[in-house]
Fold these 2 entries.
Entry 1:
Amino acid sequence: MSLNTFGHLFRVTTWGESHGPALGATVDGCPPGVPVDEAGLQHWLDRRRPGQSKHTTQRKEPDAVRILSGVFEGQTTGTPVQLMIENTDQRSRDYGEIARTFRPGHADITYHLKYGLRDYRGGGRSSARETAARVAAGGLARAALAALAPGLEIKGYMTRMGEMEIDRARFDWDAIEGNDFWMPDPQALPEWETYLQSIRKAQNSVGAEIEVVARGAPPGLGAPVYGKLDTDLAAAMMSINAVKGVEIGEGMAAAGLTGTENADEIVMGAQGPEYTTNHAGGVLGGISTGQDIVVRFAVKPTSSILTPRRSITTDGTATEVVTKGRHDPCVGIRAVPVGEAMMACVILDHLLLHRGQVGDGPQGRIG
Amino acid sequence: MSLNTFGHLFRVTTWGESHGPALGATVDGCPPGVPVDEAGLQHWLDRRRPGQSKHTTQRKEPDAVRILSGVFEGQTTGTPVQLMIENTDQRSRDYGEIARTFRPGHADITYHLKYGLRDYRGGGRSSARETAARVAAGGLARAALAALAPGLEIKGYMTRMGEMEIDRARFDWDAIEGNDFWMPDPQALPEWETYLQSIRKAQNSVGAEIEVVARGAPPGLGAPVYGKLDTDLAAAMMSINAVKGVEIGEGMAAAGLTGTENADEIVMGAQGPEYTTNHAGGVLGGISTGQDIVVRFAVKPTSSILTPRRSITTDGTATEVVTKGRHDPCVGIRAVPVGEAMMACVILDHLLLHRGQVGDGPQGRIG
Amino acid sequence: MSLNTFGHLFRVTTWGESHGPALGATVDGCPPGVPVDEAGLQHWLDRRRPGQSKHTTQRKEPDAVRILSGVFEGQTTGTPVQLMIENTDQRSRDYGEIARTFRPGHADITYHLKYGLRDYRGGGRSSARETAARVAAGGLARAALAALAPGLEIKGYMTRMGEMEIDRARFDWDAIEGNDFWMPDPQALPEWETYLQSIRKAQNSVGAEIEVVARGAPPGLGAPVYGKLDTDLAAAMMSINAVKGVEIGEGMAAAGLTGTENADEIVMGAQGPEYTTNHAGGVLGGISTGQDIVVRFAVKPTSSILTPRRSITTDGTATEVVTKGRHDPCVGIRAVPVGEAMMACVILDHLLLHRGQVGDGPQGRIG
Amino acid sequence: MSLNTFGHLFRVTTWGESHGPALGATVDGCPPGVPVDEAGLQHWLDRRRPGQSKHTTQRKEPDAVRILSGVFEGQTTGTPVQLMIENTDQRSRDYGEIARTFRPGHADITYHLKYGLRDYRGGGRSSARETAARVAAGGLARAALAALAPGLEIKGYMTRMGEMEIDRARFDWDAIEGNDFWMPDPQALPEWETYLQSIRKAQNSVGAEIEVVARGAPPGLGAPVYGKLDTDLAAAMMSINAVKGVEIGEGMAAAGLTGTENADEIVMGAQGPEYTTNHAGGVLGGISTGQDIVVRFAVKPTSSILTPRRSITTDGTATEVVTKGRHDPCVGIRAVPVGEAMMACVILDHLLLHRGQVGDGPQGRIG
């Protein structure tokens, strides 16, 4: 990852600030001949879009994506695809206070210290709006994956929100799309809604844990030692705004297990090797096994809350910050489609990398 | 990260297999004029070296590092530094069974599937021996950091080993170096030793959690959006063998917090801004704040255990695997100096990146 | 260089096709605090713009550049700068014949073979219009260089056009800006004009040789062995459309010289080392000496001519191609500002690289 | 190209100084399953090796290459291949004068200025000995190409040496291997030998022009706009020591041609498209056509001559430099196998890149 670019062969460079004229993604290295159009990408953007439900910010951005290059007569040409989203809801306002004050828990102070200046309007480059560009690029990656890995399915969902946790015994893969929380435990839904309302009323916010699964990815994706699939997934998820932890399979809990508990035994199935469990999260030695690839990440609660917090101004004066405006009490909800997009980009990138170095498909046979 | 290379400007490429003639690190982009010699690097390698204590593998490798290039009259010249460690303890043995069998929880099967062949001797490229090269490179990074970030201190330690966890109320920074576990809670030491003996006797292994702290790093390191300091740290740690989770600051626990609990308030101190807490782990918006940079990672228990596990052979036949030989019951112990090395490399890399794009030191002033 | 990106730290990714909605440059890694606005960049674009003189294509594109990101209140912020140029002069026409025919000497056939499809409108991605994005990025690089290398001057000019060559005895640095050919030998101007008219009348085109000089660059830019300044300059120039050769200093003529003729002797001057000659073109061992950096490149004559040439169609049928439309008889003229832009980007990139690895300015002293 | 690394997927990092313990190449990204051994690589190194004929330096280095990693049971494993060449002929000598003096035309002064120190023994990193590592890596690339591009043939030869030029009318592809000059015009051989003896007797040196041809490369290699095949070839050749110019096809002479003269007409042949001429040198729009890929480069005469030249010392004092010792009167001779090695690496790299992004082979059909 190189400042604002990620990916080896499928390279995504995002650009743009929250309140500038536009933001977008410059995608280089996409295979040619992928059928794609603006409506197809818009489908994914609409899932991330604010103002969709009562649980997310009421900032109304159509987030309409335009394809400016790299697509001709409905197919990618192999040249860079420019995906642009214009910022239309730039309410004129007085930024004087924000310009002079550092919001606690925000990038305001670090941007100021590093660069000596910052675009303070709406968080500028550090705004979660940047993730719209990722979702657009992820939509393109999904279109390419449809041809390259036909059985692949990528799905993200919330597993925790503050005090609420899903009951994995009730896990329902098909229920995820049907609710505002992307939650696989629909029985718990009313409780989650009530909880989030209480957080909002308390002028507070809350963190979340998201799990993203890639089902049906072929074995052999990834590479030793620094180009590992899990390394790139960890980087991809940690690069999302507000993410503070990333886990593969057992994740941090692996520290508490013994070798007999943790090892996934291997048996021979009808189609090839099978595993009795998936503590590994589908990755061994940095390379996919063919099992579900399971990534989990934690999103911190947004610091943009109505409860006053102590801070300082650019001249070092103590102050109190209350962040008014349109903010999600749980930004983690909208991180679900972003995590999916990053998974799609990483899987595609590693499919291309594998094909480049090794050739089509796994090279080893078993049985 | 590009297959076997990590870093933007301070670029480390490791090479070599567990039982080949040698392994090492090719380090490109080191600043010139850094005083360094083999003895100085050996200091760090000796900390990681097996056979040091009763808790780690008894494979006796001197792990002697040789500097083959890039250093002249005791100083780096700015050209690539080749750090080579010869493999001396290559016991001749019959590898027939290992060649035909996939150890559960190991990269055996994924390397086989991906590449169609694998160096099965001692794990080949997927062996933890590769981390010796990282530690050598980390030693060089520390030497460079001594000049570039004089007050910087990097320290790793174990915070968990299976059922054992440190009591943070008894945290003692200065006790870490004095015990076999790099453990900051010396009072718990006897209990940890007894526990690990019981794991070993049970022919089992156990996972671990390691925390690495960089104290005294300047603010301003890192960059939006994919070149974030925490993104690169997550990638660096996840690339270490057997690591399954990475956390910055609060890490996964951030999912359970509210905004009022999590935000680090800012106050003006004598030297500049200070923070009342460090939930962020020293990184905001991907850029260092000047606080302690806190990274945590989990190492899974090694699958190389004497307890039989089910697996298959290359021709798909069911078999049982018992991994004899010299293996650590807790590989996490030796991951401590590796985590430190990765921290050193990442911090140096971002210091050079910052200097390249922005110039020396933070550009913004407060107060 | 990575498909559509060049540069190490100052990274320019260009995107867009000749007849798509827009094209542009995504510039990552620009130092913060650089004063820049659209008018300042437009100055450079206007020099490259078609329709400026009777010698260049009459396609009338305003080539107006818009800054979509990375600039706030007149200064760069250190985040990606998106420079977009909308394509306004997309005459509707019948592309049927062009779609089915490969123009000789064009990328039509190789794009078709490689990708299986191509955007045939006006050359698509292979059009010289792509260079407008380079000129915009080069304008940004120049703005950054104004602060980082105050005395630096970058100037390009034609040294040859078909049978016409400049007389170096009459070389006039200050005359370059004053004529349509960027020609440093104004006395030859009438002859060049007559010659080009005859080429045009003959429904033909002609090649050109362009020299670009960077005067006042500090010593120490570049790096062994693959990050050499001259390596990057050669790549930068060879990446420009229609360029077939690149020379540094003596260039290809060095093959004909002896060691006594070629070596630049060193003497001590008032300000430091001086060189009696500059056969090296300002680069020794890949690193700048502080002398003029001299690069020369050859642009082939465009194949878009009115004289019929034999070719084939996509179904393999023999045909004849006559390229009607608005084409320059000497595309080399408009390559001058493009070469300057590439020089600016490479010099800035190496200044940042040097500062990153080594620190500000040369580290060695003489005398 | 990134300081000491070149290549996108087949990445070669060379390391080592002329008079250090060893030098070598770390090759990452090689396809697995490539049959390779030390003897096979040695074949190519022996062609470059000094002391082979009366025309090259009498420094006697066996230049024996060792494979330290990435090869198992005679095949590459897909992990990094470390190729090491130990420096055995390190004559002990007094370097005092060389340490204090800058040789004109050498990198001595620029390394000193840039880094503040340099390994002055035998030129250190800037020595032509570095090219031995390229030739080793090129041997590995050739082994991989044998499987991936079966009909491919890569051959380099001299076309000029000072006043001597080959007569292309007598060009004999099969005669190249049979003489000390890699010269395709054997009739001119006696004259060349006499000329080079006169240069040597005059205590002088002379430049050379080398042409490298890849015959039988598939169409479709390369990519717009900065990952062009010719861009990467130009960079590869310009990165070789002492190279001052690079040409593709017509090269610099394209500046003197008209469009009717330069365009390669296309006709339909039995196997697919054919071209009546090859002015383009096998590359259109940065992508290979399937014709011979033709690269030419000029090597300057070495500045290491016995004729005294004016220079200065590190303290700025005027001095005269006479370079005694073992030096080639025409270093260009030994640049032939180096140019071939670079061609092999670039072709392989682009084959892998193409396979990664687009899939196996050209995607478009004609006829």
Entry 2:
Amino acid sequence: MKKLNVGLIGYGFMGRAHSNGFAKVNHFFDLEHQVVLKAACARDGGKVKAFAARWGYESVETDWHKLIQRDDIDLVDIATPNNTHAEIAIAAAKAGKMILCEKPLSMNGLEGKKMVEAIEKAKVPNMVWYNYRRIPAVALARQLIDEGRLGRIFHYRAKFLQDWTISPDLPQGGAGLWRLDIKAAGSGVTGDLLAHCIDTAIWLNGSIDKVSAMTETFIKERKHNLSGKVEKVGIDDACAFLARFSNGSLATFESTRYARGHKALYTFEINGEHASIFWDLHDLHRLQYFDHRDEGKLRGWRSIHVSDGDHPYMKNWWVPGLQIGYEHSFVHQVADFLQGVESGKPARPTFRDALETQYICDAVLKSAQTRQWEKVPKVTRTA
Amino acid sequence: MKKLNVGLIGYGFMGRAHSNGFAKVNHFFDLEHQVVLKAACARDGGKVKAFAARWGYESVETDWHKLIQRDDIDLVDIATPNNTHAEIAIAAAKAGKMILCEKPLSMNGLEGKKMVEAIEKAKVPNMVWYNYRRIPAVALARQLIDEGRLGRIFHYRAKFLQDWTISPDLPQGGAGLWRLDIKAAGSGVTGDLLAHCIDTAIWLNGSIDKVSAMTETFIKERKHNLSGKVEKVGIDDACAFLARFSNGSLATFESTRYARGHKALYTFEINGEHASIFWDLHDLHRLQYFDHRDEGKLRGWRSIHVSDGDHPYMKNWWVPGLQIGYEHSFVHQVADFLQGVESGKPARPTFRDALETQYICDAVLKSAQTRQWEKVPKVTRTA
Amino acid sequence: MKKLNVGLIGYGFMGRAHSNGFAKVNHFFDLEHQVVLKAACARDGGKVKAFAARWGYESVETDWHKLIQRDDIDLVDIATPNNTHAEIAIAAAKAGKMILCEKPLSMNGLEGKKMVEAIEKAKVPNMVWYNYRRIPAVALARQLIDEGRLGRIFHYRAKFLQDWTISPDLPQGGAGLWRLDIKAAGSGVTGDLLAHCIDTAIWLNGSIDKVSAMTETFIKERKHNLSGKVEKVGIDDACAFLARFSNGSLATFESTRYARGHKALYTFEINGEHASIFWDLHDLHRLQYFDHRDEGKLRGWRSIHVSDGDHPYMKNWWVPGLQIGYEHSFVHQVADFLQGVESGKPARPTFRDALETQYICDAVLKSAQTRQWEKVPKVTRTA
Amino acid sequence: MKKLNVGLIGYGFMGRAHSNGFAKVNHFFDLEHQVVLKAACARDGGKVKAFAARWGYESVETDWHKLIQRDDIDLVDIATPNNTHAEIAIAAAKAGKMILCEKPLSMNGLEGKKMVEAIEKAKVPNMVWYNYRRIPAVALARQLIDEGRLGRIFHYRAKFLQDWTISPDLPQGGAGLWRLDIKAAGSGVTGDLLAHCIDTAIWLNGSIDKVSAMTETFIKERKHNLSGKVEKVGIDDACAFLARFSNGSLATFESTRYARGHKALYTFEINGEHASIFWDLHDLHRLQYFDHRDEGKLRGWRSIHVSDGDHPYMKNWWVPGLQIGYEHSFVHQVADFLQGVESGKPARPTFRDALETQYICDAVLKSAQTRQWEKVPKVTRTA
């Protein structure tokens, strides 16, 4: 087996999720590459050493510039806040590394475009961690659509609801809270949560032409952890938008961190001429499916427990009826990425594919400002 | 249209449920008979007058002997406590009346046998109010079994869980509480709740050969409302039993009034070679159905919203998607009874059919005493 | 008891639902009035006679002008297509009758305003059949909000999904299909379905300030049943809109008749600072409730089976655990209307209250045309 | 950190599940020991080498006698068929190794007793892999019971339903199918599935006094994979039993491999005086909880998404709302075992604790033969 040496930058929530993906993938998937946890990188030397010890990274760096120049690093994995993605990715591309980048790709479409140009110039394998495409139930949804089971699509609706920022005492910014800091995150729920919904949507249902959006910041000021002062909140606490897909279907999207009772309720539903699909991250191992072609008196929503050997990814895990969880989507993404490298058919979404989501996010945020419908610039997807 | 004059005995919970069935049936079902609420009968003259006024009964009686002798009564409906069923039914049969009798048929099998003999000698139309057969989802279950969709049956399981007698302060006996009084009720949950489960089970899955049961009375003494004294509790608070059906399938049955969180949770599940069925009284308008012959990756339990025009009884009600409720099962039972009278094909369960349930209840209670498996005497069902 | 003589106009789906409400209300509710089904009116003499016979109406009319002039009619109930509401209601008001009018109030806000003026000039009791306010679970939701349990409201989302017009072979117009005919219905899903969602929303969450909407007509032409020709379809097949409530909360609304798997899936969810509520017409007897003030490790969505005696309306029905259904909301509405007449505190929504919904529908349809956010004119609600 | 060298015997389904537990535990739990995958052992040299390579075991053995004699092995993990547990465990105990043994402990109680004696004589840390105790939702159930929230327990009911042996063409015995071979498995669903239900039950609700059981073998003969001949099937395909707990509560247990639609549906419900609990392996990340002490009109079953930081084990994983799966129960079990070793308070169930389950299984199988209630011999649990 070929070794594939990984250099990880960032050790937060995503750093752990990615590391777990790297550590487990060879236990469960047959690949030509053996993933090696070669180096972990973060500014705080003590913390990164502890992180590396826990996960078995062979070495540490405290300067990412050094990491990407190391000859023994094949793949750079970017798991840092959004405002650092572009600089690191462009430098890593120039250094000829394979690159995995946490989502969203960038702070905005303009920045994302530069990243795409850099990476395509360098011709390095690349992927963005829109991990929900790799939940088996979501992958099954894609199969069903590809097989034409839904027929003409009429409706798409998605939401991503959380409730963790309702307290006005929660500060913005700093470790673990950079997602509330407009300078580090670029936006609020739009880039953090709706980006996931949009990535799945365009993967399942094609491009979006235009949007009409509204955003709201319910808590106007919060203490900033870095400055120590009460500052204006720059992010969107909530965002909802109407959309029209290129295939003629209508959509509603909504995200908020102010929906009591929902921790990470990402749901989507697609209504087609013949069949409908519903999925819910809180019960991620199930797909709800309704097929109008079933015999009339026996029609009903089927609750498919996506844990059988003929379901996507599941033959690699346990036995029918036994669930996998959130973290497995990252294992699958590593497996797919490597199979993409091995087969020459790149796994998706590439940086280019993720740029489309970035443009939609831009249009959504712009529409919320202009209070007009906004068109989405076209992106050619990876062939 | 022919008039069919009803004389109701008893104005409790079941008196209301039956009256509502009589009052509504001609609004929703096409029948040859027009049901007329001719007389209501109960010992308390004031109360029965108020009841009659509310429901539109044309007259009242305070002595049921008088009611059953009235020439203008075609049908006697027995909605009184269990210990009065036999005497009234036998007398009404002798008087040549059609008879509807609330379940359970009788205090025990011996008594029930006499009722069957009397009614068959009199050759009068008769039926017992095992109303759950007429819930559309339950009727659909029967259709599916009749169509052979389940194949060989392996398992049957049913339970009926309530939680209303957990307080030791609840008295036994008296108005509204006669179900706790062994002298009026004959048994506790066995006759009250398991009788329903058994009636459905033998209707769907055929006869039961033998049973092994246990019963328990959690609260040993309660104040008796009639005597005013603390007395030993004679009824079974809970009962569970194993059973073997004649078709080779295995069954578990359980009922209790000590299951917190369940008001009237009657559920049953049937597992066949090809398909399985589940139903739940708390969501009575749905049938859960799993068919192994569905395409592998799309197999799942279908939640069938039994509200379409091609579902049993539903074309008579509203439009698809709009639920009916508990009370409608009684309307259906009146409709089916009248159609049975009109067509000459009696609706079920007749007294004879209900006797089979009585024998099973007897065997269950006996097994709980003997701590042995007990055989169930055979009953020939109505042809 | 005082007699209250009802004259019903129209014998379609709603004519049946209203009649059932009138027929049952005195069986289950203690009122000063005895409802009398005095007359049914429709143009087809044969059919209205059959309808009257089935339901027990004492007489029939084939001209509604005659009906509203009859001295023995106290209350006129309008259950005809939308384009006839205004003329009948205004005439009935002039004739001094109490008026119940099926929803939506009118073809548009202008027409509705005239109806409000007429009825207020005549000072007659009046109400619009937005029946979903009277589903016990929905009434419980209102109680919880009135008690302040949710705290500040952040989000409201509602949808009403159906799937019955997907076939291009379905004609528009004519008996049973007038809801597809723009001339009879005034709009498509907006007036038919979203009007229900809006009525509940403004009752639960206050006024809506502005909206941004999109509509779509998926099947552009259909055969018209009256003309016999293929004609352009004028109604909206689907409509979705963003809204901002006066209380600062954000909302999404959506309705369609092209959502496979949903017969009448009206759902709403409200997210407040402390608690959230969810309701679903397909399981109308349940309310989902999440309260953040519950102990941390035990927080969860509670599935409340709204069938206990302390739930709204339920003490009038059966025993805990036994569901009621769709039709009961109409019984409740008659009961509430009569109690309003008896107490001098009118039941809601009055024509005036329903006008607010009409204005919102107008703004929604206008926004779909202008592709702009549209403001909603203010209406003072009934004191 | 101290090294803890593991020697695994067996590489089937459970060999993988255990290995994953060993491989992941130090990534997510803070322990004094570093688990080292030192050696994997199985008879087939080629296969065990491939297995070792995949999982990172440093060496292989093909004779378990050699493995348990190796000085560099601290812990022997037994993941072989049931009929080999006793011999290996007793030998490993004599060799002074820590022992983890896959469930059920033994072929029967007599054999189990010998294992307990051997291991207690050797005074080695030991545990049986009843992994479901470590599902966070199940651990939460135990917390709630320990806190006295349920009050007096009235009812316990558990079932474990599968559907994978319905086809008569499925052979018995041989690799992957030894669970169908009476000689290798000792029993059918009783030892395989009910043992899990029983272990959880006695952990949550105390000892069982007596049982009344029935078993069935639906397919009487199957081809045996080892002999190549059609042979009588010796295992129980299905088993159901009634039980009485020492605390006075009543129970029903059922297991089968003939329940269409259920892959691994292990469910249990406990009804107490004040509260009830329900759990379901098919949605293992949820606990259903009903508390009668909640305010009357707001009582309902709470669906607790057991994914918060204050839920058992969950602070070690991701963020609220993100599920873990089946495999994590094994990681937890390794963590708990090691913490037991480190703290001197042994993790449960020990061999001694698991012997109680073995005695209950024996009584169940005996009762199915004698058709009598059978008493369960008492076992003193580990202090």
